[in-house]
Write a structure and sequence with these properties.
CATH class: Alpha Beta
Number of strands: 8
CATH topology: Aminopeptidase
CATH superfamily: Zn-dependent exopeptidases
Helix content: 40-55%
Largest sheet: 6 strands, mixed
Number of domains: 1
Strand order of the largest sheet: 4-1-5-8-6-7
Number of helices: 7
Order of helices and strands: HEEEHEHEEHEHEHH
Radius of gyration: 20 Å
Amino acid sequence: MKALQLIILSFLAAIILSFSPTSKKYIVIDAGHGGKDLGATRNGIHEKDIVLNIAKQIKKSVERNDNYEVILTRDDDSYPSLSERTEKINKLNPEMVISLHVNQTPKETEKTGFEIYVQKNEQSKNLAEKLKHKLGECPVKEENLHLLRESKVPAILLELGFMSNTKDRAYMSSEEGQKEIAEKISDFIRGN
């Protein structure tokens, strides 16, 4: 009789635990610019479109894992102000923030690749170092940018490449390039 009670009790405990809410990690992806703010632009290719497409792919990829919920600061061609973005971030209190951008120089350049900007704290710097391992060798720099300065959680700003570099521009604006970039960032998020 005791064995039967133990089996029933174990079964009930398993049922109750299976319906318990899971604690998800919140991740904010900020797709820079938007609306009338095109960001870096060359040959009809706009930063705001590249970063939004990649942000949506990251959300879709990461949320396949029940442990994460990705919140986008914008999911359409709108322009939330920098203050609105950081206010949203600070209300959500996520595990981390990744702000996506595209670099540009005034003229065509040989400069290429990712650059990471960080807050002046160790958590942000540690995230950047881990992300750097997923992306490959790239500079990590401290910068006094609004989103980094005003976010109360670990935040990094990731420049995805140079709009003013022909190869980077072609890669970032291609479906394949955007998918590869999104997957690298998604792998980094799932690894944290």
